[in-house]
Amino acid sequence: MSEHRKKGRRRSKTISCKSRPREGILSEEDRNVLGQMEEARPKRRDDCRAMPRPCLFVSCKHHLYLDVNPITGSIKINFPDKEPWELEETCALDVADRGGITLEEVGQILNLTRERIRQVEVTGLKKLNSISDEAGLSD
Asked: Could you tell me which of 1, 17, 32, 130 has the fewest CB atoms within 10 Å of its CB?
């Protein structure tokens, strides 16, 4: 049995671009509300640092509730059993500002297993090393 099932967590859910409603379905009133939300959304880290938490701007690329694939347009809901305001942590930048945390803590924040977090860390470090080698920044 997977670690997600043992702890009672549900796996993330991906919605493909094909199954999402078309853009033209929004009413004029909905478009106005979306425009107002976009204006209120912080543009820089300094703008959002003092805002109340949990952050409800799920469209922000640093929000932990969902991920949007820029290539396919698919949406991955990381916490299908929760609403955005029910998350303990909502902003990846807030987590980064805290400093180092364990793989277990990162896994809980991102709704992933400790092993998956370790795999992502190894892949990221390999990419950083190859970039520094190409740029001639290695020791």
From this structure: 1
d(CA 70, CA 72): 6
Cross-strand partners of 77: 13, 66
pLDDT single digits (tens) 86-104 = 998 999 999 989 888 999 9
The torsion angles phi and psi of 91, rounded to 5 degrees, stand at -125, 125
Tokens of 98: 């805290």
User: What is the distance between the alpha carbons of residues 72 and 99, in angstroms, rounded to a whole number?
Assistant: 32
* Judgement on whether residues 25 and 79 belong to the same structural domain of the protein: yes
What range does the domain containing 10 cover?
A: 3-87
Q: Please indicate, yes or no, whether residues 105 and 80 belong to a single structural domain of this protein.
A: no
pTM: 0.66
